[in-house]
Amino acid sequence: MVASIYSDNIKNALPLAYALEMFHNFTLLHDDIMDDADIRRSKPTVHSLYGQNTAILSGDLMMIKSFQYILNSKLTENNRIKILDLFTKTAIEVCEGQQYDMDFESEKYVNTDSYLKMIELKTAVLLASAFKIGAIAGGADENIAELWYSYGINVGMAFQVQDDYLDIFGDQELFGKLNGGDIIQKKKTYPFLIALEQVVNKEQLIIDYNSDFDNPQDKVSHFQKIYNDLEIPRLVQEKIQYYDKKAIENLDSISSNKNELQEIIDLHQKLMNRGF
Fold first, then answer.
1. Going by fewer Cβ within 10 Å, which terminus of the chain is more open, N or C?
2. Which residues make Cβ contacts (< 8 Å) with residue 41, sequence separation at least 6?
3. For residue 43, what are the β-bridge partners?
4. CA–CA distance, 166 with 178 (Å, rounded to integer)
5. What is the rounded CA–CA span in Å between residue 207 and residue 204?
6. What's the start-to-end Cα distance of the chain, in Å?
7. Other Cβ atoms closer than 10 A to 29
């Protein structure tokens, strides 16, 4: 989509899109192994069907193929080097983000700044790279390409914090799943970490969060009440709006011609309005 803003010929962008999608799916294969997950996108995961060794090797191959797609793209050598450098940096950061996420599972206290850094690495940088790589492939100059990267970071951050919010307070029918899955699974999400910073009796909150209630929905209701009493929905929405505002400012800096960016703006609005 970004490449098409700067060039009528988007064929050069296609191998790069393949690379990003291949890399993304590699991370999912390995995430499913780490999480011992049996289902992905309503279907059995690779390791549950073919075994862990095959899933690990399949993921490894997908990562290698993603680099091959970039190397075989018909870009100038200079642009290929730029994209490979960015792609390599992104791959490292995504792996670092996954390690942070796993570390958080065993850490008693995680502050919100650390959590936001984790989701930037695990989620936002890949989206940011997709925007910047598209800009480079289309022929945008370096300053504009960097603005696209910043836009992707801010959209990615808003999206993930919103995802945490919707899990608890979203419209179940629109969001497509029951409220409170993160609470039931004891995941340290942004709403919980904000609550932990606000509440006086932190130890009791941690004990309750790590407990298994006889009825899981009672646990969800219990924490929904705590979050409402602490005004967590307002605080989380303020953080979403903070990143969303920065993303819109990035778009304004990229171009004053809204028609030129309409496809991106439509996607942006769709992402920000989901689950409400």
1. C
2. none
3. 40
4. 10
5. 5
6. 26
7. 22
Indicate the pTM of the whole model. 0.92
Please give the backbone phi and psi of residue 21, each rounded to the nearest 5 degrees, phi first: -70, -40
Question: Mean pLDDT of successive 10-residue segments in the chain (276 residues)?
Answer: 93 95 96 88 92 96 96 93 97 96 91 97 96 96 97 97 91 66 92 95 95 93 95 96 97 90 93 75
Q: Are 254 and 151 in contact (CB under 8 A)?
A: yes
Taking the C-alpha atoms of residue 145 and residue 93, their distance in angstroms, rounded to an integer, is 19
| Long-range pairs, 117-122, Cβ under 8 A, ≥24 | 119/156, 119/157, 119/160, 119/161, 120/153, 120/156, 120/157, 121/93, 121/94, 121/96, 121/97, 122/94, 122/97, 122/98
Query: Given the structure tokens 């499913």, which residue do they identify?
Result: 32
User: What angle (nearest 5°) sits at the alpha carbon of residue 89, between those of residues 87 and 95?
Assistant: 100
Give strand pairing partners of 172. Answer: none
- Strand, coil or helix: 254: helix
Q: Which residue has the tokens 């409170």?
A: 180
DSSP state of 13: G
